[in-house]
Amino acid sequence: MTLTFVEIPTAGGGWFKPADVKDAVAFLIEVNSYESQRPTPNGPKDSALCDITIFKDRESLEKLSPEINKGTRVEQTLLARDLEKVVGNATIVKLDQVPPKRPGAHPAWVWRPVNDAAVRKAVIEYAQAREAAVNAAVADAPDFD
């Protein structure tokens, strides 16, 4: 019998804070789950549980050495809702802010597609190399059957 390995999504990675990584070149976001109106101490929030790989600058992209955050909770309304359609898949995006609609309100964080082909290619190469390393490790594991 062949085993299919699946990771259990956990929120061990804390909460996503866009202001801390607003200048990142690209994000590889793998969405594990989405909960609409999840109860929180601050009232119900739309919430996505994700593994977020952050390429903070061109150097980390060129070296393929990103920051990896597994089990990160995204609860900013627009960011979380956009990820609802990506559950079980991955996307390559960057962050942006849109001006508020009412005076005195805070600008909203939004995902934007990465249009730079070189950046997209590098992130895809990273993801493929990571996947190949995992598959090689599984193939090298002893078979106890």
How would you describe this structure to a colleague?
The protein is α+β, with helices and mostly antiparallel strands and 145 residues long. It has 3 helices and 5 strands. It has a 5-stranded antiparallel sheet with strand order 3-2-1-4-5. Strand 1 and strand 2 form a beta hairpin. The protein is globular, with a radius of gyration of 17 Å. The protein starts with 25 loop residues before the first strand and ends in a 5-residue tail after the last helix. The mean pLDDT is 88.
Give a concise summary.
This protein has 145 residues and is an alpha+beta fold.
Average pLDDT for all residues: 88
DSSP strand count: 5
Helix-strand sequence? EEHEHEEH
- Unreliable parts: none
Query: What Rg, in angstroms, do the CA atoms define?
Result: 17 Å
Distance between the termini: 8 Å
Helix content: 10-25%
Query: Per DSSP, what share of the residues sits in E-state strands of 2 or more residues?
Result: 25-35%
Number of helices: 3
Coarse structural class: alpha+beta
Shape, principal axes of CA atoms: globular
Strands in their spatial order, largest beta sheet: 3-2-1-4-5
Outline the biggest β-sheet.
Answer: 5 strands, antiparallel
Layout of SSEs?
Elements lengths: L25 E13 L6 E11 L2 H5 L4 E8 L2 H7 L6 E9 L9 E6 L3 H24 L5
Antiparallel strand pairs: 1-2, 1-4, 2-3, 4-5
